[in-house]
Structures are given as structure tokens and as C-alpha cells.
Amino acid sequence: MAPHVLRTVAEVKAWVASLQKEGKTLALVPTMGFLHEGHVSLMREGGRRADVVAASIFVNPTQFGPREDLARYPRDFEGDLAKCASAGVTAVFAPEPAAMYPPGYQTYVEVTEVSQGLCGERRPGHFRGVATIVTQLLALFRPAVALFGEKDYQQLQVIKTLNRDLHLGADIVGMPTIREADGLAMSSRNAYLSAEERQRALALSKGIRAAQALLASGTRDTRALVEAARRELQAAGLREDYVEVRDAGTLSPLDTVAPGQTARMLVAAFSGTTRLIDNMPLAG
Ligand code: PAF
Questions:
Q1: Degrees, nearest 5: CA angle 268-270-271
Q2: Which pLDDT score, from 0 to 100, does residue 284 have?
Q3: Which residues participate directly in catalysis (predicted)?
Q4: Are 191 and 34 in contact (CB under 8 A)?
């Protein structure tokens, strides 16, 4: 069945109230649209964890820097609705920017520590925008569960932190990155890539896998692990934005991956003018 489309905050409040009256639990999947298999996996998991699934489709202007791709971010609302329908989504919230940021709007959410470094450093203001819109959505929908992809790993830690610190009460679920058959992490921004840039973009996942293999062979020094990933980026002619190994929970930088430690390698690089990110676990 086609999802119910909600456009205003008032419509969301009325819809959520009727759901609560029926005693139904809600799973929320916040997105910026141009949906792919990764988003669909979040929706399907939402359906396993709650009675009803809602998705939001909103290209949130506050999380884009002045020189970023807000104006050309890919959109396909009709296609997105069809994907939501086949993934069992009951309602789609697709507001205009003025519905979320009306005149007089003045509240922004800043998550301090886990927003530092990585994308937080390379994209100033990005996580403030993400934290602000996600807080609004969690406050509005009051979902039992909210699902996000691990592809945006630092974003996931930011959202877990704000949900905990602001007592929003959702169960924040991170789901594994969905990849193309050749290893490329699915992303709406892959639509920007030419065939050649897409081929070169495989170096992100290849680089992390090279680091995983090096760790498995006994090299625990993170500088050597970073170098292994970097070599793949360089061989493919990608411009590195960052390659780092961090603690998987706190995101604090690591010099070595200790036995039993859960670490994460996080990579950002440009293929042509398109900035791509990827990450995978490094098991100590
Ligand atoms: O990951 C995204 O698509 C966005 O950053 C999110 C979480 C929907 C907030 O706008």
C-alpha cells in the first residue's frame, strides 16, 4: 500500500497521537531520500522491531556547508515512495525546510566529543545540523526504535549520544553497511560518479580490507594500518580526506589495536569531485 504522506509538524503530531491511541509501537527511519538498498534494509529491520514503520525524507539544509552539494543533492520522491511502500513503511514525513526551520527558529544541538575530528573536522557544522534535525524528529515521532546505517559511523555515534544525553528514549539501532557486489558502499552520492570514478572509488573498501588483512597478520600499529589503506587510495588516484583508526565506541584515536579491542577504520576520499566515506571494524 502507498505510504501516507505527512507534510507538516501538525500532521505528524496527529498521526503519532492516533498510533499511540491504538497502542502501537513505532520504528523511525530518518533519511534524505534518493533511497537505496541500505535504506530499505533499515525499513525492513524497523518492521521486525516495531508495529509500524515511518520514514522521513528531508534534505536537511543545516547539515550542508556553504560549498557543499545541497542544491544538487539527488532527489526522486516518487521512486522513494515506491521503495517505502515495498519495504512496509506506513507513513513518510516529507516536510518543506520552513516546516522544520520556521521563522524564529533558534535551537541547535551540539554533541561535543564524538563530533570531533573525522567528518566533524572536515565538514564544520555538519554534525550540529544532523544532531538538530534528528533531535527534532525523535522529539516529534517519539519512536520506540530509530534506525541508521553504519556507513555514517560517526553520525551514528553522535545520534546515540544525543539520544542518551537528552533522554529521548529511543532505541538507536545501527545497521551494517550494504555494499554493491564489488564492495562499494551504497550511498545516494554514488549517483554523482562517472563509470571511471566509480571504479576508482572501490579503493576505499579495498584499502580498509588491506588494513584488516595486515592486522590479521599481526601488525597492530595503527600507522602501518593507515599506510596500508592509504596505498590503495593512492594507487587508484583518489584524494584522501582522512584515513584513521579509532576506538569503535568512543571514537578516540588509537596508536595500536590491542588484543580484544574493538576498533574501526574510517576513510574519506574524493573520487573526482565526489567525497565518499567508508568504514569497517578492525578486530584486535
Ligand atoms: O544520514 C542521513 O541521511 C542524514 O544525515 C539524516 C540522519 C537523515 C539527518 O538528516
A1: 130
A2: 81
A3: 39 (proton donor)
A4: yes
Q: What is the pLDDT of residues 156-209, one digit of tens each?
A: 999 999 999 999 999 999 999 999 999 999 999 999 999 999 999 999 999 999
Q: Tell me the pLDDT tens digit for each residue of 53-78.
A: 999 999 999 999 999 999 999 999 99
Query: How far is the C-alpha of 221 from the C-alpha of 63, rounded, in Å?
Result: 34
Complete edge-to-edge strand list for the sheet that includes strand 239-247: 239-247, 262-271, 274-283
Residue 167 is a catalytic residue: no
Beta-bridge mates of residue 274: 271
| Conformational region of residue 71, where left means phi above 0, alpha means psi within -120 to 50, and beta covers everything else | alpha
Considering the entire predicted model, what is its pTM?
0.98
Domains and their CATH numbers in the chain: 4-175 (3.40.50.620), 188-278 (3.30.1300.10)
Ligand 1 residue neighbourhood (C-beta within 6 Å): 30-32, 60, 63, 130, 133-134, 152, 155
β-sheet bridge partners, residue 282:
263
pLDDT at 104: 98
Whether 111 contacts 162, CB under 8 Å: yes
**Arithmetic mean of pLDDT over the chain:** 98
How much is the pLDDT for 1? 85
Tell me whether residue 189 is annotated as binding.
yes
Mean pLDDT, residues 230-240 taken together: 98
Query: Rounded CA gap, 140 and 283, in Å?
Result: 38
What ligand 1 atom has the least distance to the C-alpha of 130? 9
Q: Which residue matches cell numbers 522513494? A: 80
**Nine cell digits for residue 69:** 552539494
* Cβ 245 vs Cβ 264: under 8 Å: yes
| C-alpha dihedral sign at 139, 145, 149, 153 | positive
